[in-house]
Specification:
It is built from 19 helices and 14 strands. It has 508 residues and is of the alpha/beta class. A five-stranded antiparallel sheet has the order 2-1-5-4-3. A five-stranded parallel sheet has the order 7-8-11-6-12. A hairpin with a 4-residue loop joins strand 1 and strand 2. It is elongated and about 180 Å long. It starts with 8 loop residues before the first helix and ends in an 8-residue tail after the last helix.
Length: 508
């Protein structure tokens, strides 16, 4: 018979097995919990380590930022250049001590002001026009002169957009260097320009003043040496751009392969030898005037690029891709017949139309002989300085009259060279006709005139009679009897001419 089990023994084993199973499961759960907690602790340690590194990096960044701010503030506070920041309303929000000191104001007194408040309405308008270009995204560099506490001061100034973290333009930053002491000696302004006696030159200067008040392109026409560069500067000095730069270049003296770089500048590597960026004359003339003499000598390819600039007021440097906008006035000049050059395809017809908005014909010296004494005074004054003469040279009336005799095919330039040669030969003392190479033979006296434009026939005849009487008196040493004999008239007739013609009797 089978052995009987004690009551309850099977249940006990089952209970033990269940208990063991539960214990094992609990142990497994503890292991899982432990591993999970360990994993969490590992992740937490990793996160903590990462966070610690980020904190350290942020601390280093903050330290670098503080050091950078300290360096910037040191530069800002101690720089001799003017440094300023404006908001979008073009009000000053920050200025450095150099700028405050220039105006004899504190920085807080300048904050909130505009350029109109500091420089006046006219200059303020000009500066605001430039600032608006900067707020549109351009970087602008210009040279200009403006009054600071009543003193003309010349600045070389750079303005760049100021952006926030999102790249939006929130204002501008500018740096201006005072270069007044380095700027060349000024050319006489409008108030210093002498009144030339000749109607031809009076008419020319009148037209020059008229166009100076506008901002149009000007074409100056005239013979070589007639004073086209002088008139270009005269127009600039009488225009609203007079406080801006004035650059002049003779296109005939620039090698064709360098002309584009000279006018428009180039980027590094644009051609062999172009190691760094160069700003061209157009860019340097920002806010002022560029005078291109002998414009007819420009290569056709450069003429095309110049035409584009006149149409768009922008260009690209040689080897560059970025369009550069420039606010510069163009004055051009030539002694050639550009219309004939255009017909023979040596000059672009479309460029001629753009250049010839307003033209001025400068008279040759032979058509303004009465201006020669005044020109001699001006030129000799310049030569005195250039040649460092110890005493001013002396020109007798006879010598000044003798200078009116030649035709001067080289015009004012030839006259200046003649005067310089005479000063060298004379040693700076009294100038004679021989020094000038104009020694006169008595029998070769002559009278010069041109077809009367602003004079009548009677006026020309009167001038001739006066010149003959004056020459006769000069040859006679002021003796009226001898002078009347030389002229073949009576003494009474001579006296009548002297009185009625207002003859200068300087020979007596």
């Amino acid at each position: 018979m089978p052995k009987r089990q004690k009551p309850g023994s099977g249940d006990a084993r089952d209970d033990v097995a269940l208990l063991v199973k539960q214990s094992l499961k609990y142990a497994d759960d503890l292991v899982k919990i432990y591993e999970a907690e360990k994993a969490k602790r590992t992740e937490l340690e990793r996160v903590n380590e990462k966070l610690l590194k980020e904190i350290q990096q942020r601390q280093r960044a903050e330290q670098d930022l503080r050091e950078s701010e300290e360096r910037f503030r040191a530069i800002f506070e101690t720089a001799p250049d003017l440094i300023y920041i404006k908001d979008r309303a073009l009000r000053y929000t920050q200025v450095n001590p150099a700028m405050a000191g220039l105006f004899h104001l504190s920085g807080s007194e300048i904050l909130g002001k505009s350029d109109r408040d500091l420089y006046g309405v006219e200059t303020g308008k000009h500066l605001e026009a430039i600032d608006r270009r900067v707020l549109a995204g351009e970087s602008v560099e210009e040279e200009g002169t403006r009054l600071v506490r009543g003193v003309p001061t010349t600045f070389l100034e750079t303005r760049v957009p100021l952006r926030n973290a999102a790249g939006e333009i929130i204002g501008l930053c500018g740096i201006a260097r005072n270069i007044t002491d380095r700027r060349r000696a000024p050319t006489p302004q409008s108030g210093d320009v002498p009144l030339y006696p000749s109607k031809a030159m009076q008419t020319t200067l009148s037209r020059a003043r008229l166009i100076a008040a506008q901002d149009s392109t000007v074409l100056l026409l005239g013979e070589s040496g007639s004073g086209k560069d002088y008139l270009a500067r005269f127009i600039h000095d009488n225009s609203e751009r007079k406080n801006g730069p004035f650059f002049a270049v003779n296109c005939a003296s620039v090698a064709p392969e360098l002309a584009e770089s000279e006018l428009f500048g180039h980027e590094p590597g644009a051609f062999t030898g172009a190691r760094q960026r160069k700003r061209g004359l157009l860019e340097l003339a920002e806010g002022g005037t560029l005078f291109l003499n002998e414009i007819g000598e420009l290569p056709l390819a450069i003429q095309a690029k110049l035409l584009t600039f006149l149409d768009t007021k922008s260009f690209t440097r040689v080897g560059g891709e970025k369009n550069i906008s420039v606010n510069a006035r163009l004055i051009t000049a030539t002694n050639r017949d550009l219309e004939e050059d255009a017909r023979s395809h040596r000059f672009r017809q479309d460029l001629l139309y753009r250049l010839n908005v307003f033209s001025i014909q400068i008279p040759p010296l032979r058509d303004r002989r009465e201006d020669i004494p005044l020109l001699v005074k001006q030129l000799v004054s310049q030569l005195e300085t250039d040649m460092r003469l110890s005493s001013p040279p002396i020109f007798d009336k006879e010598v000044l009259e003798g200078l009116k005799a030649p035709d001067w095919p080289g015009n004012v330039r030839e006259l200046r060279n003649c005067l310089e040669r005479a000063l060298i030969l004379s040693g700076g003392g009294r100038i004679t006709l021989s020094d000038l190479g104009l020694e006169r033979v008595e029998s070769e006296w002559s009278f010069f005139t041109s077809f009367p434009k602003d004079k009548t026939l009677n006026d020309v005849t009167r001038d001739l009679k006066r010149a003959l009487v004056e020459e006769a008196l000069r040859r006679a040493g002021g003796n009226t009897v001898k002078a009347s004999q030389l002229l073949g008239i009576s003494r009474n007739s001579l006296n009548h001419y002297v009185a009625s013609l207002e003859v200068n009797r300087g020979g007596e």
